[in-house]
Write a structure and sequence with these properties.
alpha/beta; Aspartate Aminotransferase, domain 2; Aspartate Aminotransferase, domain 1; 2 domains; seven-stranded mixed beta sheet; two-stranded antiparallel ribbon; 9 strands; binds pyridoxal-5'-phosphate
């Protein structure tokens, strides 16, 4: 006898599944894709730009889609405010890619949006910065939350690519290992899983990443980031060579501390305070006279994320106080 119930119907019974809180994503109306770099590729495919101006100061994975699609690119420099030095012309078939550095550059994003139509904003470091209307903008979720992958895209074109859904279960091991075995024991897997994101096709966001992203309390995460950031800033502002307007912080990625001393990272490492490097590839792309080179070697990206409270910030400051 033919089964009346289609195999598409959800099953009933069986073992109990991993239970994640059900809520709403932060950007429910944006396109959901598998990686930030692929969201960039999506824009390039539908907008058909011929030349892309990219900052020297960015992650090398940004080149993946440009090389894949055979699109020409030119590097540009940034100044001490991390704003683009606009000493070049952006032609009608060109576009400008700008990174909202550390989630602190929304004012520059607004300014650039008034100057240029052909603009792409990389909000991989600015998850909480809302996309501006009529500006192509992408986000990478794993920089802010414990997900294997996932990206959001605001694409101003009406053209839509037909895509299959990604599956990210094979990139998940570091996230469960960190719970059961500790974060340091998951590090090897984190590196391997990161590598496995290279040169994968554009797909829709996996159900796994989307489910996790639906269960996050974004309000609390943003609040913790702002509070930790300001706690550090109150003490570090007078030492920080990078000056910025802290009055409108909006869930930034890290606290960027720029100092001329280069021994600090190791001192923090000795105390098991890990500092990510933004971005090692910049040292290959630039000469040591360039500001981007200096930023890469001297900017200390202090963690301020939702896992932490002022007690961890105090620990960080105590180490820094021995040096400053
Ligand atoms: C500035 C920046 N943009 C884009 C990306 C790409 O994001 P994803 O790893 O999700 O492709 C990264 C990091 O990988 C990044 O650091």
């Amino acid at each position: 006898m033919k089964n009346n119930y289609s195999s598409k119907m959800p099953s009933i019974g069986g073992y109990l599944e991993l239970q994640l809180p059900k809520g709403e994503e932060l950007y429910p109306t944006l396109l959901k894709l598998n990686t930030g770099r692929n969201a960039f590729e999506y824009i390039l495919k539908v907008k058909r730009y011929k030349l892309v101006h990219i900052p020297y100061y960015t992650c090398e994975v940004i080149l993946e889609p440009l090389k894949k699609l055979g699109i020409q690119f030119q590097y540009y420099t940034i100044n001490e405010q991390m704003d683009p030095v606009l000493d070049f012309v952006i032609g009608s078939e060109d576009c400008l890619l700008y990174t909202n550095y550390f989630g602190l550059k929304q004012e520059t994003v607004i300014r650039l949006s008034k100057l240029f139509d052909n603009l792409i904003i990389d909000n991989s470091q600015a998850f909480f910065s809302e996309p501006l209307e009529n500006v192509d903008t992408f986000y990478s979720c794993r920089k802010f939350f414990g997900v294997p992958d996932g990206a959001y895209l605001q694409c101003t074109s009406d053209i839509r690519l037909k895509l299959v859904k990604d599956v990210s279960v094979e990139r998940f091991s570091h996230l469960i290992k960190s719970i059961d075995l500790g974060i340091e024991n998951g590090y090897k897997d984190y590196i391997a899983n990161n590598r496995s994101l290279s040169n994968i096709p554009i797909k829709r966001m996996s159900a796994l990443s989307q489910r996790i992203l639906s269960g996050i309390d974004y309000k609390t995460c943003k609040y913790r980031r702002n509070s930790n950031f300001m706690y550090l800033h109150d003490f570090l502002e007078e030492y920080n060579d990078y000056s910025f307007d802290a009055s409108s912080v909006n869930g930034p990625m890290v606290y960027p501390l720029l100092l001329s001393s280069s021994e600090i990272k190791n001192k923090l490492l000795d105390k098991r305070i890990y500092i990510a490097s933004y971005w090692p590839n910049v040292l290959e792309w630039t000469t040591n006279k360039m500001y981007e080179h200096y930023l890469t070697t001297h900017l200390i990206a202090l963690p301020i994320d939702h896992r932490y409270t002022h007690s961890e910030m105090k620990r960080i400051l105590n180490v820094l106080k021995t040096i400053l």
